[in-house]
Amino acid sequence: MPKEKFLLELKLRLKKYGISNSNQYINYYSEYLDDLIENDYTEADAIKKIGGVNNVFLAILSDNDVQISNTKNKIKAALLLMGIPVWGPIVAAGYIILLALVFAVMICSIAFSFAGLWLLLGSLIVLLKTGFIDFLFQLGTAFIFGGLGIVFWQLFVLSSKKTFNLVKFILLGFGIILLGILICIIVFAALGFDVNTIVKNSGNIYSPIGWSSHY
């Protein structure tokens, strides 16, 4: 870059961002470049040595003698633009992580909801084949998974858009979870908290298909 072009770009940059004593800096860098050129530097090498327009502009902004006339917002914008190579990838990585979390919450919601529905349908088979206690245990488990599905779905909705019914549905989800836990506690109480019996009965959890393989 020729010396004249460098000084012109620097002057325009300083004027644009309200550096009122810009001529002082233009004269300084003009003399500095002349000194370098007299010491056998080419114009391009001299400009490269002092760092180019962007580096010189930032150096001027940090100078104690710089005089700025009510352009703080413009300077902040300029600094932000110049910092894009630094903070741009960080912001992009943050968005990618957030999108991954939203996707993970959605997958959890689908998985818990499907499991809850599957166990709920299977509980009807349990009622017919093994008895009321096993039915209650599987029903409670179905409510727990179904409630978790509702909670995770509302968390997904919260992370993707605003909703007026968010709190209501989250409370509904937790209510269903508590109902499922209560049913399981009743089952445990009915079984006398016999661990061996609980483990034995846990093998009687059925899905809507394939239940006949247990017999």
TrEMBL record:
Chain ranges passing through the membrane: 77-97, 103-128, 135-157, 169-193
Annotated keywords: Membrane, Transmembrane, Transmembrane helix
Name of the protein described by the UniProt record: DUF1700 domain-containing protein
